[in-house]
Design a protein that fits this description.
Elements: H1 6-12, E1 19-22, E2 26-30, E3 40-44, H2 56-76, E4 81-85, E5 101-106, H3 124-136
Antiparallel strand pairs: 1-2, 2-3, 3-5, 4-5
Length: 138
């Protein structure tokens, strides 16, 4: 736990939250400033800055929980879809440096713009070069 982390304070109970679910690894809460009704956060109980610090066992438990919570929220708010979003680093939009996964229920015409394409043309050669760079990292 980090003393200056808002999510650690929520996990400890120092800051109240609207808890949807809790187990030994995670707490799932409604986002205090939701993009849509039902917007929730899955927060590990231990402090990990981002996905790069997340232990394998926590990562493995995350998506089964995300699926369960997304399904429940989708039904509860009669959503047509769901964005599952996780940001790592300031340039990627991370504003709280405690790993968390957003579940954002979506409805047609809701006006939410979370995932915009860059709309830039990429050549097959550029894709091949990036692929080779990624494959070279072990």
């Amino acid at each position: 736990m980090k003393e200056d982390c808002i999510f650690c304070k929520i996990i400890k109970g120092d800051i109240p939250s609207f808890t949807i679910y809790e187990d030994k690894l995670f707490k799932v809460i409604l986002d205090r400033f939701p993009a849509a009704p039902g917007h929730a956060l899955i927060i590990p109980k231990e402090h990990y800055k981002d996905i790069f610090e997340l232990p394998e066992e926590v990562a493995q438990a995350l998506y089964p929980l995300a699926k369960e919570m997304a399904t429940r929220i989708k039904l509860a708010v009669d959503a047509e879809g769901m964005n599952i979003v996780q940001n790592n680093g300031e340039v990627a939009g991370q504003s709280v440096y405690h790993f968390h996964l957003h579940l954002v229920p979506r409805k047609a015409g809701d006006g939410i713009t979370l995932n915009k394409s860059a709309n830039s043309a990429t050549t097959l050669e550029e894709l091949e070069a990036v692929l080779k760079c990624i494959q070279a990292v072990k």
